[in-house]
């Protein structure tokens, strides 16, 4: 890959990503629209008080409000004054707690926490490279894996992915952990390796301690354990240990929830707190809302902060067309010219995306709570991007895939230059 045009393309992509990430650390308004303040308050509570925050009891601090140019009594601000992310699993906040313990309520602390998000984004990029090498390890062209990686890097260059993973939230840790689970499961199956299967179970447990929504990866772990056990490649003890690991890691937090809230999670209480703001009219969601939400979810290249300005007219039409192409064309290409080991590609690279979409639809229709937001797909998008590359590889040479990645990168660079110059990015 060294000195090749594909390597130079990847170097440019990584440079763009680094500039976008570090610029977001410094210039993006404090606080980001999507829950950055309560996420910060969660880290602050763990770091300064040595405990987890509690829903309906903890308020965001006046000092944290002031960092975003707000003032007043948090108790008088309704949901905006509540530490309403307190229902989230604790791993991300515990890991970052030393930063707030040392830095307190200062802009510098916010910058450091965002910089951690950039580092975690870099970790996710590296894990995606490792996964790309696994997916294309039998390709005769040595440029196939780098070209596929360049295509997957386009996901990381999406403004929505950069901003959601750099601004403070547990999404920053969820992304690399999700990719790590897929990578370890792939290796466990490929090498019939019981230790890697156990490691996948441990990492899945850490992922669930970061975001419960990553339970969509549990069927992948269970499926690999079942296949390996059926083949006689691992003992029952190793398979059981891998499947038990996530439960054991989650157990202390679930027990804390039972003690504090009388339930395994506080999701229902969090929904009741947020519902008056998110659905003030008490609307009942139906199939029409599912279609509307699906278009929004799968076309979410832009972060929510920019929607009111850039998702009207031509922007919206362009979003829908691009989303349809990305979602519909690869399955057609695969149906016409199936790649080798198609079943494995579908299980590892596509199923997590489909399960995430199904889970969001279930919550909307059965739970009557609207979580159809693009950010919930981010942890599973890099793997799907490699499936897109796998579909294209049957029709294009590796250099052709790289040229396509270069074109998408150029378009995303223009998107960044156009949208990041506005007040939605700078706050000015």
Helix % is: 55-70%
| Helix run count | 19
In terms of DSSP E residues, the strand content is under 5%
| Broad shape | globular
Q: Kindly provide the radius of gyration, computed on alpha-carbon positions and rounded to a whole number of angstroms.
A: 22 Å
Order of helices and strands: HHHHHHHHHHHHHHHHHHH
- N-to-C CA distance: 42 Å
Would you mind describing this structure in some detail?
The structure is a single chain. This protein is mostly helical and 428 residues long. The chain contains 19 helices and no strands. It has helices at 5-27, 36-49, 62-67, 91-103, 107-135, 144-156, 159-166, 171-191, 194-208, 218-231, 236-261, 267-278, 287-298, 307-310, 314-336, 342-365, 381-393, 398-419, 423-426. Helix 1 packs antiparallel against helix 5 (107-135), helix 5 (107-135) packs parallel to helix 17 and helix 15 (314-336) packs across helix 17. The longest helix has 29 residues, at 107-135.
Please provide a brief summary of the model.
The protein is mainly alpha-helical and 428 residues long. The chain is 69% helix and 0% strand. The protein is globular, with a radius of gyration of 22 Å.
Chart the SSEs and their pairings.
Layout: H1 5-27, H2 36-49, H3 62-67, H4 91-103, H5 107-135, H6 144-156, H7 159-166, H8 171-191, H9 194-208, H10 218-231, H11 236-261, H12 267-278, H13 287-298, H14 307-310, H15 314-336, H16 342-365, H17 381-393, H18 398-419, H19 423-426
Helix pairs in contact: 1-5, 1-6, 1-7, 1-18, 2-4, 4-5, 5-6, 5-8, 5-17, 6-17, 6-18, 8-9, 8-10, 9-10, 9-11, 10-11, 13-16, 15-17, 16-17
């Amino acid at each position: 890959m060294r000195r090749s045009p594909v390597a130079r393309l990847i170097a440019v992509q990584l440079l763009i990503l680094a500039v976008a990430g570090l610029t977001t650390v410094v210039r993006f308004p404090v606080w980001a629209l999507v829950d950055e303040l309560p996420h910060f308050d969660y880290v602050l509570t763990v770091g300064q008080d040595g405990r987890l925050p509690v829903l309906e009891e903890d308020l965001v601090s006046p000092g944290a409000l002031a960092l975003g140019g707000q003032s007043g009594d948090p108790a008088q601000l309704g949901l905006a004054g509540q530490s309403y992310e307190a229902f989230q699993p604790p791993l991300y906040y515990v890991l970052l707690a030393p930063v707030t313990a040392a830095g307190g309520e200062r802009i510098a602390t916010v910058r450091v926490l965002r910089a951690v998000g950039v580092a975690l984004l870099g970790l996710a990029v590296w894990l995606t490279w490792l996964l790309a090498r696994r997916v294309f390890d039998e390709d005769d062209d040595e440029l196939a894996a780098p070209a596929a990686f360049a295509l997957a890097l386009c996901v990381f260059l999406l403004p929505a992915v950069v901003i959601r993973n750099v601004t403070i939230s547990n999404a920053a840790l969820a992304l690399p952990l999700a990719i790590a689970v897929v990578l370890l499961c792939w290796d466990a199956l490929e090498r019939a390796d019981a230790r890697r299967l156990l490691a996948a179970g441990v990492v899945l447990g850490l992922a669930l301690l970061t975001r419960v929504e990553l339970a969509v990866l549990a069927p992948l772990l269970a499926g690999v354990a079942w296949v390996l056990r059926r083949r006689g490649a691992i003992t029952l003890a190793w398979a059981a240990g891998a499947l038990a690991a996530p439960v054991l890691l989650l157990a202390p937090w679930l027990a804390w929830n039972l003690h504090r809230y009388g339930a395994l999670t506080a999701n229902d209480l969090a929904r009741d707190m947020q519902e008056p703001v998110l659905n003030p009219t008490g609307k009942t969601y139906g199939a029409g809302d599912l279609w509307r939400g699906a278009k929004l979810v799968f076309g979410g290249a832009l972060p929510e902060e920019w929607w009111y300005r850039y998702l009207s007219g031509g922007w919206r039409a362009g979003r829908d067309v691009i989303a349809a192409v990305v979602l519909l064309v690869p399955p057609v290409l695969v149906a016409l010219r199936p790649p080798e080991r198609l079943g494995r590609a579908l299980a590892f690279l596509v199923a997590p995306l489909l399960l995430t979409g199904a889970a969001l639809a279930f919550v909307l229709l059965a739970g009557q709570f609207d979580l159809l937001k693009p950010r919930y797909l981010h942890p599973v998008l890099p793997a799907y991007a490699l499936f897109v590359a796998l579909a294209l590889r049957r029709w294009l040479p590796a250099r052709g895939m790289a040229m396509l990645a270069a074109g998408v990168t150029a378009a995303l660079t223009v998107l960044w230059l156009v949208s990041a110059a506005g007040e939605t990015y700078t706050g000015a």
